[in-house]
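Rather than argue in generalities, we have chosen a single entry, letters for residues, whole numbers for local backbone shapes, without further comment.
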Amino acid sequence: MNMLIIFFPLFNFLIASFFGRWLGKNGLIYTSMIIMSVNFVWSCCAFFVMGIPGDFYFYNFGTWITSDLFVVSWGFLFDTLTVSMLVVVNGVSTLVHIYSCKYMAEDPHIIRFLSYLSLFTFFMLILISADNFIQMFLGWEGVGLCSYLLISFWFTRVQANKAAIKALLVNRVGDFGLSLGIILVFCYYKSVNFSVIFCVSAYQESSTFFNNLICTLLFIGAIGKSAQVGLHTWLPDAMEGPTPVSALIHAATMVTAGVFLIIRCSPLFELAENTLVLITFFGALTSFFAATSGLVQYDLKKVIAYSTCSQLGYMILACGLSGYSASLFHLCNHAFFKALLFLAAGAVIHGLSNEQDMRRMGGLLKVMPFTYIMILIGSLSLMGFPFLTGFYSKDYILEFTISHHYNLAPIIFWFGTISASLTAFYSFRLIYLVFLTKTNMYKSYAKTVHELPFLLMGLPLLLLCFGSIFLGYLSKDMFIGLGSPLFNNNLPWIKESHHLYFSEEFVPYGYKILPFFFSLTGILILYLISLYKKLFNSFFLAHLKKPYKFLVFKWYFDMFYNVYINEVILKISKIITFKNLDRGLIEFLGPSGINQAINFTAIKLNKDYNSSSLISQVGYMIFIFTTIFYFFNIDIINVIVNEFKKKN
């Protein structure tokens, strides 16, 4: 049964790819919903059978690669970490499949779209269930490929193609670091199997050069996939794809792969003290950077995308402080309320004829009350409103941070708390511009605006809403409760000196309620700005133009990459690669150069143009036949020699 959980999405992909024409749109829709729903139910069963008791299972299906000591098997590992991710990935993927059946119903290529979604889910499941680095890297690259296909699904749109290429290229930088890290892992441990590496690493000295170098390279891979600051630029632009793609990729699957990698490799990262400091710094900076960038965005989906980037910063931050269970807990919670926000935003876009600019919306509360409630609950959970899902994990990470023995823990805590305040500000700014302010939409949109259909689009939102309200409370004691046995026999592993021994439970009460009051402060500032617009506009023109420009240009990361990296590489490529190599040395030594040499020789031998042209053509034909003979003469000679030996 466990292996069927992995391969059911692949079956769905094959059915859609090869039999979609015969099944038709409606037949494939029902087939996809049934297969993915069954897969989710089985994932829940696997979690209750293996996850809660703390059991783990290995499945080996034979050798894949063998070269001296380098042996890679087709192996699958089902432990608490794997089955927890199975529930999240398959749960969100199932709801996105159901939602897409209605959202993309009018698209003529819906069969291709559903096949891409299933293939993406399959590669994500390969990634989280692999028992070795090479097989995990296969899933890692597979989700990257499928993200390119899904982002550029509407390939007639230039921006969609640009965004897909950008996502692919930026992730290649991180993937290069990950591949180097895997090579060093094999060189140092002589294996790529997780169980072997983690057992050997327990006897290694802490903070050696190789440990830090390996973990730094692995973390570079996580920076690319999980959109940490520096390699984050692909994430907002990826909103050019269909909205269900954003909900699947940026809520529970691809962007969480980097966090999963760190949690899976926790025995290695626990021995790399310097890398853990680097991870903590990147997580705190990412949460703050993304929160500030989301303040000034007007694209509905990009605001939610920057909130994703910010929440990923919290997860990475927790990993850097050895709070792997807290990071996993926030990952699971975040998947539900972020998928809710994306799909509810898709309902708004669907109702407004694909309009995404929030300045052209407004007044939708009376027309789309159900969607308004869904976005409100998702936003409250995102900002960590008490007793909703996000509150239990996000606030716990901040409490965990302030209780840590790390010297810079107070600074990291304030970064996270200020980010929480900014999150509340841009979340309610979104609600205000879309639903509460006076309408500013086109008259043609106002005539056709409508609430979403309940059965296929409203029901997934309702289920995600349930998770956004109750999931944190129901699973809190299981993931981060005192004495919880969930991870006793499984990963993540924490070094003895990094244990806090429940010190987060004794944080002063003022620190515990501080993030909530900062969130209320962000909402209050937004209310005052909306109440005194003229006063704020005059103050803005006098003092805030430069900071606003800095945030609109997203801290100038894209401009820096374009001016100082991309343009320089293009100029060097043109001068060296194109002019000197492609059009220089290669053409001179290749067929073009030989043809020119024959022409020159023919003209020298005979000054008559027609004769020289004929001679050059004959020479070119001789060159072609000589080349063909060169490639095939060895086989011909071998055949002749073998026949001669048989006769003798």
Summary: The radius of gyration is 29 Å. The CA atoms of residues 293 and 554 lie 6 Å apart. The longest strand covers residues 57-67.
